[in-house]
Amino acid sequence: QVQLVESGGGVVQPGRSLRLSCATSGFMFSNYGMHWVRQAPGKGLEWVAVIWYDGSTDYYADSVKGRFTISRDNSKNTLYLQMNSLRADDTAVYYCARDRERLSPRYYFGFWGQGTLVTVSS
Amino acid sequence: DIQMTQSPSSLSASVGDRVTITCRASQDISNSLAWYQQKPGKAPKLLLYAASRLESGVPSRFSGSGSGTDYTLTISSLQPEDFATYYCHHLDTFGQGTKVEIK
């Protein structure tokens, strides 16, 4: 069965960096676009970034552009999110999500991890 | 950027009620819309995609319709396990969410 397991969250000071990982299993990772979606405490969902199945293309929400980098290692079936220059408003549960469709993503999030909490606070 | 406006933001309903949630896009999104259900402390779950296609394993009491800018999620007969928050979603934008509570 498809599994997505995030890790790397925690408490970090403003301006510092953090890298999240999403370990996957149960499907051909190299065939699917992958996303990060976040949810601030008590708030709605916010799409963060997407990376194509082969890593050739990525896009970011304006709120994180220039600070966050999405990447993947298809040999390790793992997705990453490098977060730099963190701010208080980056505090959220971060979910990785697999696109429902193979190859080019359609932005239908068919599978989700359990989420990892990132708290940015001094 | 396309804006997604979801309504209502919350509603109270009883088991067995028919529930309708609407989502309006700021421009034509050509049925490129998904609906998710989220329960407290859990990840969202995909219910419908391409506006009206039911995801595998999702009960048939959930249905989606619409075209152009206006879309609807309908729960034909609300069940106890359906009390949750529902989100519409187009590409990089989610609606604000609709919390369905017990009356």
Characterization of this structure:
The complex is a heterodimer of chains A (122) and B (103). In chain A, strand 9 and strand 10 form a beta hairpin. In chain A, strands 2, 4, 5, 6, 9, 10 and 11 form a seven-stranded mixed beta sheet that branches. Chain A has a four-stranded antiparallel beta sheet with strand order 1-3-8-7, with no helix packed on it. Chain A is built from no helices and eleven strands. Chain A is globular. Chain A is an all-beta fold. The mean pLDDT of chain A is 97. Helices cover 0% and strands 54% of the residues of chain A. Chain B has no helices and eleven strands. In chain B, the strands form two sheets. In chain B, strands 2, 4, 5, 6, 9, 10 and 11 form a seven-stranded mixed beta sheet that branches. A four-stranded antiparallel beta sheet of chain B has the order 1-3-8-7, with no helix packed on it. In chain B, a hairpin with a 2-residue loop joins strand 9 and strand 10. The N and C termini of chain B lie far apart (36 Å). By secondary structure, chain B is mainly β. The interface between A and B is medium-sized, with 18 and 21 residues.
Low-pLDDT ranges of chain B:
none
**Total strand count of chain A, please?**
11
| Global shape of chain B | globular
**Biggest interchain interface, per-side counts:** A-B, 18 and 21 residues
* Average pLDDT reading of chain B: 97
How are helices and strands ordered from N to C of chain B? EEEEEEEEEEE
Question: Span from first to last CA of chain A?
Answer: 40 Å
How do the helices and strands line up, and which of them pair or pack?
The complex is a heterodimer of chains A (122) and B (103).
Chain A: E1 3-7, E2 10-12, E3 18-25, E4 32-39, E5 45-51, E6 58-60, E7 68-73, E8 78-83, E9 92-102, E10 109-112, E11 116-120
Chain B: E1 4-7, E2 10-13, E3 19-25, E4 34-38, E5 45-49, E6 53-54, E7 62-67, E8 70-75, E9 85-90, E10 93-94, E11 98-102
Parallel strand pairs in B: 2-11
Antiparallel strand pairs in B: 1-3, 3-8, 4-5, 4-9, 5-6, 7-8, 9-10, 9-11
